[in-house]
Amino acid sequence: MTQSVGKPLPFNDIRHLQAHQFLVDEAYLLDAQKYEAWLDTLTDDIRYLMPVRVTTALGAGFDTSPGMAHFDEDKYSLGRRVARFRTEHAWTEDPPSRLRHYITNVRTFAGEDDAHLVVESAELLFRSRGDVNEAALVSCGREDVLRQSGDGWKLARRIIMVDESVLRMQNLAVFL
């Protein structure tokens, strides 16, 4: 697993600017539900993980449930989810959700080599579906590893840490 090296990169560092641009472009693809194009921004060995958060006593030393995750996916499973959206069996997204991914607090760190960057960000997802359901919000922090490839940066790992232990969204048929 790639680790960050040193202090955050300055905001005017070209690597930080490229990482920030990657996240903004990714948010556009997800908002526009261009999921096949989004899959192209992932490495073949992607790990996409969203541990289950738990509320614990101060000093417990953990805030996730060991071995449990809402998502623990690879490129194959992400691809299957995307393919399912295009079938009549995707009732959780028929009608499709209206999505807005707000990305902020982006901090970029050098990776252990020049081909990797570690990127921290905060995300707020607004999701509206249908005419009668209430809109939902999901707030989370993300730690990403971006890997340089022949056609730019690609997402190699994402760890999503939601800010609540009980999710109030009707389902998790979304990408964060």
UniProtKB/TrEMBL annotation:
Annotated keywords: Dioxygenase, Oxidoreductase
Protein name per UniProt: 3-phenylpropionate dioxygenase
GO terms classed as biological process: 3-phenylpropionate catabolic process
Annotated family: Belongs to the bacterial ring-hydroxylating dioxygenase beta subunit family.
Keyword match Transcription: no
InterPro entries recorded: NTF2-like_dom_sf, Rng_hydr_dOase-bsu
Pfam families registered for this protein in UniProt: Ring_hydroxyl_B (PF00866)
Molecular function GO labels: dioxygenase activity
Biological source species: Mycobacterium fragae
Domain of life of the organism encoding this protein: Bacteria
